[in-house]
Design brief:
The protein is α/β, with parallel strands linked by helices. It has two domains: 74 residues, no CATH class; 138 residues, 3-Layer(aba) Sandwich (Rossmann fold), CATH 3.40.50. It is 26% helix and 22% strand. It is built from six helices and eight strands, in the order βαββααβαβββαβα. It has a five-stranded parallel β-sheet with strand order 6-5-4-7-8, with no helix packed on it. A three-stranded antiparallel β-sheet has the order 1-2-3, with no helix packed on it. Helix 4 links the parallel strand 4 and strand 5. Helix 1 crosses helix 2 and helix 5 packs across helix 6. It is globular and about 60 Å long.
């Protein structure tokens, strides 16, 4: 865990404290199953041997990005996913949500204009679980690929690995989808920069993320799921530093 991080968006180290929250291992009995597993990450992986911790929510004075400290490193985030993979048995896909088919249709309708004419498109779902949101792209004969810690990919989708570093250097895509991924990673700038390097000419990256800062520090019941909290300004700065030109999806 990093006690004094630099902002992963703009690189500055000028923070303003906006809140604190304590977490106690004994509280795990009052949580739902999802939160209990994240508490296990917190106290078994990130802070082993401790029964009580306090996290401080900090706002970057330069770009408006928010995180908490101590902040998980890239190794800590990877350890989280490996731990969850072991206890969740990710060789088995989670049950389909009733919203998944409609989400898949909306995603395709929004992004189909970015697919090339005259040939089969190559589409990467980065951080997409088993790739279930790719179903409409598969129907239109796109070549579909997946990068995720989940070891199970839907039929017709080729899994390339767990992280962006597992993508072969000579493999490029017409469209890369990051749907609710960037709020989970340790270094969003590095991730997007590496993904940009795998775009074909005129290719596009679709980034969807939550805006969770509404007048209070975004320290949730469990601090393991999201480690990054964006504002419009910090999102724009992230794209600028990555060299991506923002464009509406629809």
């Amino acid at each position: 865990m990093i006690e004094r991080p630099s902002c992963p968006v703009c690189g500055e180290s000028r923070w303003r404290t906006i809140g604190t929250r304590g977490y106690r291992l004994s509280d795990i009995v009052s949580l739902n199953e999802y939160e209990q597993m994240r508490y296990r990450v917190l106290f078994e992986v990130w802070f082993p041997g401790q029964s009580e911790i306090e996290l401080t929510s900090r706002l970057c004075r330069e770009c408006g990005f928010v995180t908490y400290t101590p902040r998980p490193s890239a190794d800590d985030v990877e350890a989280k996913y490996l731990f969850l993979s072991d206890i969740n048995n990710t060789d088995r896909s989670p049950a389909l949500s009733t919203r998944d088919p409609e989400r898949a249709r909306l995603l395709y309708r929004s992004l189909r204009r970015h697919l090339p004419d005259g040939r089969r498109a190559r589409v990467l779902d980065f951080g997409g679980g088993d790739g279930r949101l790719m179903r409409e792209f598969l129907k239109t004969m796109c070549f579909c690929y997946l990068v995720d810690y989940s070891k199970k990919a839907c039929s017709g989708i080729e899994r390339l690995g767990s992280t962006e570093d597992d993508i072969p250097g000579d493999v490029n895509f017409d469209l890369i989808i990051c749907s609710h991924v960037i709020e989970h990673v340790a270094d969003p700038l590095q991730v997007l920069t590496k993904l940009k390097g795998h775009l074909n000419p005129n290719g596009a990256i679709y980034v969807e993320l939550p805006m969770e800062i509404w007048g209070a520090a975004p320290l949730h019941n469990e601090p393991v799921t999201h480690v990054n909290f964006f504002t419009v300004g910090s999102t724009r700065r992230l794209f600028e530093r990555t060299g991506l030109v923002p464009s509406r999806a629809g």
